[in-house]
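Trying the structure run again after the queue cleared.
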Amino acid sequence: MSLFEGHRFLIIQSAALSAAKADAIRKHILSAGFDDESAIVTKKDSELIPLSNDKLVNITLIVSNTTDFVEYQLAEELMIPVVREDWVLDSIAANLIETLRPYSPDPKYFLSSVSVCCAASVCQGDQDAVFSAVRSFGGIHTDLLSRRTTHLVAVDLDDEKCQMAAAFNQACEKEAILIVRPEWVFDSIVSKRKLPESPYAVNTRDSAAEPVSSSLFKGQTFFLSEDFNLSSRVLSAIRALVEQNGGTVGMESRANCCLAKYRAGEIYQLALDEKWALGNLNWLFWMVLHQEWIFPGKKLLHYPYPNTPLPEMENVVVSVTHYRGDSRLYLQQLVEIMGGQFTKSLRQYTTTHLVAAKPTGDKYKFAQEWGIKCLNHLWLEESYAKWELQDDSSSRYQVLGDKLPVSQSVGHVSLEVQSQKHAADSQLEDITNSQDVPRKKQKTVPKPYEITAILTGCDKEFSASDLRNLNKVGIKVIEQPNSSLNCIIAPGVLRTEKFLKSLSKSPKHILSPKFLTDVLSILDSHKKIEDFDKSKPKLEKYNISKSIKFKTDPKMKELFLDPGLGAQNITNLLQNSSPDLFESADFYISTTIPGGPDLISSIIKSFGCLTCAVVDKKTKSLPKLVAQARYLLCEAKDTQLQNQFRKLAADDRFRIVEWNWVVMSIFNAQLVDRHIIDEN
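Done. Tokens:
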């Protein structure tokens, strides 16, 4: 099989890619085993008459060292990848198809060389925002660290991924993976260029932003829905991005635009009633990237997502063929948001549908032999737009390749409704109806478990289908700690934001991730809930204390007052953890505290602290004391700040403590006497 099998190339000659180089590229492609010389078209960028839509839509990849050619805008609309010549050379040298995005010649995709991973210390809402931003401006993102990761976004260097990245860098004897705060991504977007990373080290609060302003959002006031679950640092970054482009972020009483993640909630309904422009962060980033205002319903993934999956998608497993770059990513997102599974590989007994751009290639051949349904992308797009799984036997979805009109190219389907309000109302009604039925059943058929869990620090990825199966047996996995949480699932005792905040909810269990994998494994062999209930895993078997060596693990000395108590430490923690742990203290947090004062404040507040103020050595006064004592949280070496705090605290009762004091207090469910720098 040829390395470039299935491709149809358009090579653009220009001042940046001479006729001789263009011919050399053509010969390189042929030398790699590509035997269809007619599928390589060469064209000068100076030719004023562009290729027709019908011809261009059949092109799968454009090789050009510049975007200054007639078809470029149309290529973007058709999601046809445009890459520099070195993509061809590097793919041949590696004997594999290299990732397309890093080879974009378009300067507006200034993050094209970036591959981002987020540490567990970055909350899920911030991770989603970072991934959307990086993806919009040309980069790629992954959930796991790899050799190709260029940037790890983090807010706490104690995070396990930070330690892995540091070890990798040490082995490479260079900073192969740069560890940066989330602000680096958003400040780069505000500055419209990839900023230097050094000012954005996790233990700093520096900035290198040079905002480039525009009037794109002039007259627009955005309201940001809370359903994004963003930290204050990322909320500030989004606000700065809107303001830099001429808009404002305000209260709902002044808004005429709304940014929301889901099609649910009071604010979403208000936006519909008031007929505001209503989109998500993908919409915002797209407009900033293109400096163009568009209706958010024009592109499917610009409108808020439904907040529950399509029930009919539960057993749907989709693979694709002959879709590359952005079009492939787009189809994957549609599948996953609807609640199906997306797989790169075609599997005979599990893949249910193959979405094919044309009826050729190995995947298509085996799909035909194995009886897997082969459809065009319209089936996915129209199912999403109507929020109803379309009939996959319809002849409309059987048309493949050149027979599909240009007007029906991938990405051209919008929300098929007369108005946003009608669409949302009907979709919300469908969602509500689909939820009502199982709720009634749940009252008569109790589930094997009653667990609301949060996952943190887990290497294992759980798909949307996994989470639905877990929910069937009473295990609900949530993204952020809330009052219903009663279980933490983690590979050990961690100091991550999620783990610490979850302890403030007084959970009943801390379990190993193996609990979930064993539940899913048993579910695979026992399809009926009644059968599963008889052999369900016992919770005590997965108690995290069973995998901890309390007496020999040095980390346990940093967390517990008496590691010699062994597993009793976990028992005491679960019995005594309280959301009121810090209610007797007003906290003042150093601007240079590792992890940043925003993150640290959010953790402390989750344990009942009412006052959290940020201070530095230049602070002139402290607010009126609300609790029983003032606490300064800083590093031991920050003597100037400590001296200033002593003066400002005057005769008030105070303590100066390190971050480890907070951590130990949380894990011992009491205010400890360790890591205290000073007190009166």
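DSSP finds 23 helices and 25 strands in the chain. Worth checking whether this holds up in the mutant runs.
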